[in-house]
Amino acid sequence: MSQNDEPRWPSADEDGSSGDGGATARLPLPKPDSGATDALPVPKVTPRQTNVTPGDGPGSWFRPVVPPEPRDLPDEEPPAAPPRRPQELADRLGPASEPEQWPAREAGQRRPEESTQQLPVRPAAAPWVPVERPAQQRAENPEQRQPSPREVAASEADTVWAQRVEVPKPSADSEATEYFRGLPPEPPRGAAPPPASSATLARPMRIEPGREQHPAEATSGAEAPREQAEPPSPPEPPREEPPAEAAPPRKRRRGLLIGALVVVVLLVAAGVTATRPSVANKLGLPWAPNAPKAAMPDPAVAKAALRGPDTSGTAPTPEGVKSALAGPSGNAALGKLTGSVIDPVTGTVLWDRNSDQVLTPASTTKVLTVSAALLALDHEKQLSTKIVQGADPGTVILVAGGDVTLTTLPLGTDSPLYPGAAHVDDLVAQVKKVAGNNVKKVQVDLNAYKGPATAPGWDPSDAPSTFAAQVAPVMADGGRTDPKNDYAMRAANPATALTQLIAQKLSANAGGPATAPAGAKVLGEVKSAPLTDLTYDLLQLSDNVLADAVARQVAIAKGAEPSFSGAAEATLKVLQEHGFDTTGVQLSDNSGLSVQNKIPARLLAQILTRAAEPDGKNPDTAKLRPLLAGLPVAGGSGTLADRYGKPDSSAGKGWIRAKTGTLSGVNTLAGYVLDADGRVLVFALMSQGSDEKPGRAALDVLAATLRNCGCR
User: Alpha-carbon distance 342 to 602, whole Å?
Assistant: First the structure.
């Protein structure tokens, strides 16, 4: 039997006879010495004879208890259980015996019902409610309902263990009477069950989980059959359990327990997670690894200050530098090596190897080009590009002013190659604002330059290529087909390509070259970045097209022809005017792409020394400072970004800034380094007859040796 099916017994049995405190009716039983347990005599009781007194003849042993009408119970009261057939059990137990059939009791002898051993009473899990069958139900024929075998077995087993308990009558004004009239009070927790009395036993009731109540068959003072008797066990302490009606609260408690368990699991999981260093650091928990170990100190006042190179300490000596460079300079990968190392503070030549001998400089030619431009031109000079009204209606002319950095990128997108460059879309938008949709033809004026578009000493494959294009006074993105890729292929005729692009944007046709009328109306104009920005870009990218374009501005400023030859002539003239010895120098272009260029290492070193001299020593130094700022950083930027990564040259990473030069069989490097003592050293190194990669690596080791040099 499950817990919910366990019978619940009343806590007390009351006298069913009329009057006050009548004697308890005892069942006359045969002598137990016969050992017969198959039939116990029980008097026959009819269900109609309910209110009789002892000695009135056949009748009920139990006084009917009328259940009170609960005040705050649910509207639907569970139906009372149909009456059991008392005759059925009586027939099974056998005929009743008369009391006088018992023999006289001898001294010390007890009748079976007076045994000192108390039968255990099962503790109730809910208040016991004695329920009387309604009058109309008592009047019914007991044959109308046949109890189930389960009910019969449960009732017979539980009735045997019933105990007679004297139940005091509750007062009329008690709380129990107010709620359930006639409901006996529940004994205190842990108290022993009250002793049996002579009061008449009330009929025990079995309460099913569905609140149905079934009266058990009546037995009083009879021993249980031997085959059903079990050894008595010590009484269990009474347990406080919710009433049978409290099934829903059990479910709610189960839900609350589950919810509490979930909360505990979540809290434990959160606690475990909070112990992880990454989580604790993000949440700033006290046990986080990066939590402050002490109070935060007061903020300190810090002033940023740039510290210049040492100009007053002990300078390196020529012997020390010669000793340091003896090994690296003898590397066979360098081929024919010339060079010079100078201390710009004192002007002392610390190391020299055939520095007067002219060799092919490659792109270190740009050191001469930039120096001449910074010395001859305004540093804020900008190159202009215009579109003016042509002589014919509907015709406009693109007037080139030497700017090759115009970008085709949309407005708002800065050029990664030429930061601050003017936008073609800006120029077109200005023309549309003035001329509307009346433009029918776009021509180009290229009279700003003279001479051939390529220089002597260029290979036919140099223009167009990924590093050069035909030089013209106007083009977009240096002639590149991809405005974001420095190594993109250049256009074969970049000026014509730009003219066609502008005509397309104006919904017009592209025309041929033309000369703009004097004083023609300007429909649109854009300007390049300042000169110092242009020199920075051409040094970082080693941009050949931009270098030759800047050199032509020097030629224009000096009154020379804006061509390759005129630009070379103007460059040397400016350097000579500022005290530089240009003996033996030959320039075919200003980019170094021509193999006909010849420059001695001494001139490169002298120009860099002037730019690195302390302030105030020479007025040209301030003008040449942008030259030093534009040089690529070893292992960091420009053409030196992917160099100085090997162990024998890594010491120079970040400390060396230099201009590179590379042609077939030619490797050059010219720049400056901060040595171990914080002293600036200028160097110019030129290698001829060397392979590209081995020659570059050997030059890098030479410069890195100067970085590690105290050289005294």
Answer: 10
**Percent of the chain with pLDDT strictly greater than 90:** 54
Catalytic residue among 355, 366, 505, 528: 366
In this structure, what token pair is assigned to residue 302?
């810090």
Beta carbons within 8 Å of 159's beta carbon, 6+ residues apart:
204, 216, 217, 218, 219
Tokens matching residue 583: 């003996």
Q: Which helix (H) or strand (E) holds 324?
A: helix 318-329
Mean pLDDT of the chain: 77
Is 463 within 8 Å of 556 (Cβ atoms)?
no
Say if CB 363 and CB 667 are below 8 A apart.
Answer: no
Inter-residue contact 478 to 418 (CB < 8 Å): yes
| Token pair in block for residue 338 | 């010339």
330, 421, 537, 657 from 672: Cα distances, Å: 21, 29, 19, 6
Q: What is the DSSP letter of 240?
A: -
Contact between 200 and 25 (Cβ < 8 Å): yes
- 60, 415, 542, 591: which one is catalytic? 542
Residue 130, preceding peptide bond in cis (omega within 30° of 0): no
pLDDT interval class at 147 (50, 70, 90): low
Separation CA 25–CA 43 (nearest Å)? 11
* Token pair in block for residue 675: 């040595």
Neighbours of 299 (CB within 10 A): 6
Provide the 10 A C-beta neighbour count for residue 7: 22
CA dist 137 to 47, 54, 207, 478, 522, Å? 10, 24, 18, 114, 120
Report the alpha-carbon distance of residue 361 to residue 599 in Å, rounded: 6
Reported as type and span, the H/E element at residue 1 is none
Q: Is the Cβ–Cβ distance between 603 and 582 less than 8 Å?
A: yes
Q: Which of 548, 550, 617, 547 is nearest to 579 (CA)?
A: 617
Q: What are the distances in angstroms from CA 387 to CA 21, 503, 696? A: 131, 11, 46
Please provide the DSSP assignment of 664-683 as one string.
Answer: TTEEEEEEEEE-TTS-EEEE
pLDDT at 234: 53
- Extract the tokens encoding 236: 């269990």
Q: What is the pLDDT of residues 251-302, one digit of tens each?
A: 677 888 888 888 888 888 887 777 778 787 777 777 777 777 777 778 888 7
Assess contact for 632 and 641: CB atoms under 8 A.
Answer: yes
CB 200 within 8 A of CB 16: yes
Q: Is 591 a catalytic residue?
A: no
Chain-centroid distance of CA 382 in Å reads 48
Distance CA 440, CA 510 (A): 9
**569 within 8 A of 661, measured Cβ to Cβ:** no
441 catalytic per annotation: no
* Cα distance between residue 348 and residue 343, in whole Å: 5
**Residue that the structure tokens 């009083």 belong to:** 220
Distance of CA 179 to the CA centre of its chain: 63
pLDDT in tens, 50-96: 444 444 444 444 444 444 444 444 444 444 444 444 555 445 554 44
Please tell me which residue, 118 or 654, carries the higher pLDDT value: 654
Q: What is the pLDDT of residue 87?
A: 53
Residues 490-507: what's their mean pLDDT? 96
Residue 627 CA to residue 215 CA, distance in Å, equals 115
363 is catalytic: yes
pTM above 0.85, yes or no: no
d(CA 22, CA 53): 8
- DSSP code of 125? S
What H or E segment, with its residue span, contains residue 112? none
Instruction: Output the DSSP codes for 129-190.
Output: ---PPPHHHHTS-GGG----HHHHHHHHHHHHT------PPPPTTSHHHHHSTTPPPPPPTT
Does pLDDT of 219 surpass 50? no
